[in-house]
Design goal:
Strand order of the largest sheet: 16-3-18-17
Structural class: alpha+beta
Strand content: 15-25%
Distance between the termini: 37 Å
CATH topology of the largest domain: Triger factor/SurA peptide-binding fold
Largest sheet: 4 strands, antiparallel
Shape: extended
CATH architecture of the largest domain: Orthogonal Bundle
Number of domains: 4
Length: 619
């Protein structure tokens, strides 16, 4: 049982850390009377457990997508239903463990408490004050927490006893290892439109209408939102912003170093302990017996370690004259440096850069104008937000301010300029018919306010609007069909001739490929198709507007010399045993639920979910 015990402790370490991070969100954030969201038999599903699981899943989803996820979006993904289902199964196992009388003693609970870092003091020993403080922040008392530890240990005993008893015969793992390790050698050739012996015909109106009618999904616009919005960006104010010559000249003078840069050299410096060592290294370099990079490696350094980047004349002290006397890349030295005698390698000459005020004027003007436009928008943003809060419509705002009124059918596929703003996209995805417009800042300093007018279901677009796409799809499928027909004819001839070269095709031979291998440039299903062939069989594999002609040449068993053969067999056995064990536990939980009965307090569940939506769930 050691494995289950360590797993049990790890789970509680994570739970306690999560409790600290959530600062005890739970029943205390609700009415104070809602303690559970349901039960299996007499085993409760507590609010705290539900909230902690939802928070954990939400954070994992955000980490996976790399984007903030609202609670409403998480609900649409089925997150809350998944969490509730898991907690019901857990409660079912707890219920059965209690019926069976499974439990652990006080000594085991105490031992687990001692090992949780959140309950330890600076000396690494259990600290009762830290224990009480952490539980108080979580909305739990000591009795509740220790009972949870006891329940978790009992559940682990039951689960380990059931799932841990699953053992598969070694022959099963070997059979799977043989399946995955089987090797195949084959020859293939690619056929594209250029290989067609007959030209692709021009589609008739009947062809176009047929492909359109047979593929409605391909020409159906996704669900979208009809959105009205007002927009104001810095670019829209450029013509209204006046920049004086004095301001431009001042900015130019302030950034002289950027516009007027002296000649620079990309330099590396290899320092030695003595003049003699440096001279000896230079002699070896001049003789060609060693390269500069090898000299660097010989001293235990990398090129990054000795890189001085770009330097101006005079920056290298007494070595500057010699380095800047070089007219092409090379090595000079030994020369003095502040770290000792050194060899200097000059890798490139960066010419002096001189940009006059007149040349920089337009860019500086645009930069200053945009900066001032952003400041003007900052001032107007609060005033516009106040107008909207007071009941002004977007049309009113467009009439009374410099914001422009626009409309858009927004979907995930929208790519027009405004939809490219992340701020706009996030607001458009979240907006509902009950929301009132408010000012939303954009990445470039602009602002937008939007309103949902209508939710538009997926709509089949008129043929005239998508004619080009229809013709492209017809042509792709026609080319594919013609290539498959031609490839099949070649395959039949190969049974007699047996040589792809005679068909004017370039053959590629692959040797000892397994099901797990990937061949660059080939579709993934190509390998799957090869392993469906019989020895000597030929096949045509489609991949969009091109096809592959393949012939299976040899079938071989797994490599007997492969070091990971036994490891793969054991790994597959363990994966299967774990999977069967999970299935057994799932079936067991379902059986317990049917016998003990499930009660879900929907009102309590709705109250907890509403707390998340209102932002009190720590999101």
């Amino acid at each position: 049982m050691a494995k289950g015990k360590s797993s049990n402790i790890f789970v509680w370490i994570i739970l306690v850390l999560l409790i600290i991070g959530l600062a005890g969100f739970g029943a205390t954030n609700l009415s104070g009377t809602i303690r559970t969201v349901g039960k299996v038999g007499e085993e409760p599903i507590t609010v705290n457990n539900y909230v902690n699981e939802v928070q954990s899943e939400l954070r994992a989803l955000q980490a996976q997508t790399g984007q903030p996820i609202t609670f409403e979006q998480a609900e649409q993904f089925g997150l809350t239903q998944s969490v509730l289902s898991r907690l019901v199964s857990q409660a079912a196992v707890d219920h059965e463990a209690r019926i069976m009388g499974l439990s652990v003693g006080d000594a085991e609970v105490r031992n687990q408490l001692m090992q949780i870092p959140a309950f330890q003091g600076v000396n690494g020993q259990f600290d009762r004050e830290a224990y009480a403080f952490t539980l108080d922040r979580s909305g739990l008392n000591e009795a509740e927490f220790e009972e949870s530890l006891r329940d978790d240990s009992a559940r682990t005993l039951l689960q380990t006893g059931m799932a841990g008893a699953v053992r598969l015969p070694a022959s099963y793992g070997r059979a799977l290892a043989n399946f995955y390790g089987e090797r195949r050698s084959f020859t293939w050739a690619l056929l594209t439109e250029d290989d067609l012996t007959t030209p692709v015909p021009t589609p008739t109106q009947a062809d176009i209408e047929g492909i359109y009618d047979d593929n409605p999904d391909a020409f159906t616009a996704p669900a979208s939102k009809a959105i009205t919005y007002t927009l104001l960006t810095p670019d829209m104010l450029l013509d209204t912003v006046e920049i004086s010559d004095d301001a431009l000249r001042a900015l130019y003078d302030e950034r002289q170093a950027e516009f007027n840069r002296p000649e620079r050299r990309l330099v590396e410096r290899l320092v030695f302990g003595s003049q003699e060592d440096a001279e000896a290294a230079k002699a070896r370099l001049d003789s060609g017996s060693i390269s500069f990079s090898e000299l660097v490696a010989e001293r235990g350094l990398t090129l990054t370690d000795i890189d001085l980047s770009d330097v101006v004349e005079g920056a290298l002290g007494d070595a500057s004259d010699a380095v800047f006397a070089l007219e092409e890349p090379g090595v000079v030295g030994p020369l003095p440096s502040d770290l000792g005698p050194a060899l200097f390698r000059m890798n490139a000459i960066l010419a002096a850069q001189e940009t006059s005020f007149e040349e920089a004027r337009d860019d500086l003007g645009t930069e200053l104008a945009l900066d001032r436009a952003r400041r003007l928008i900052e001032v107007q943003a609060q005033e516009i937000d106040d107008m909207l809060a007071a009941g002004a419509t977007l049309e009113d705002v467009a009439n009374d301010t410099e914001m422009t009124l626009n409309q858009m059918n927004f979907s995930d596929e929208s790519t027009e300029a405004t939809a490219a703003y992340e701020g706009f996209r996030a607001a458009a995805e979240a907006v509902t018919a009950d929301d009132f417009p408010e000012v939303i800042p954009l990445e470039d300093g602009g602002i937008v306010a939007l309103r949902l007018d209508e939710v538009i279901p997926p709509t089949l677009q008129p043929l005239d609007d998508v004619r080009g796409e229809v013709i492209a799809l017809w042509r792709e499928r026609t080319v594919n069909r013609m290539l498959r027909e031609q490839a099949n004819e070649i395959a039949e001839r190969l049974s007699e001739v047996g040589d792809l070269a005679t068909e004017g095709l370039t053959a590629t031979i692959e040797t000892d490929i397994t099901r797990q291998d990937f061949i660059e440039g080939l579709p993934r299903r190509f390998i799957e198709s090869v392993f469906e062939l019989e020895l000597g069989e030929r096949s045509v594999i489609s991949a969009g507007p091109q096809v592959y002609l393949v012939r299976l040449d040899r079938i071989a068993p797994p490599d007997p010399e492969a070091e990971d053969g036994d490891l793969l067999s054991r790994s597959l056995e363990r994966q299967l045993e774990d999977g069967i064990g999970r299935d057994i536990l799932g079936a067991f939980a379902v059986d317990v639920q049917s016998r003990a009965g499930i009660e879900i307090d929907q009102r309590a569940l709705d109250a907890v979910n509403a707390s998340f939506s209102a932002g009190r769930g720590g999101m």
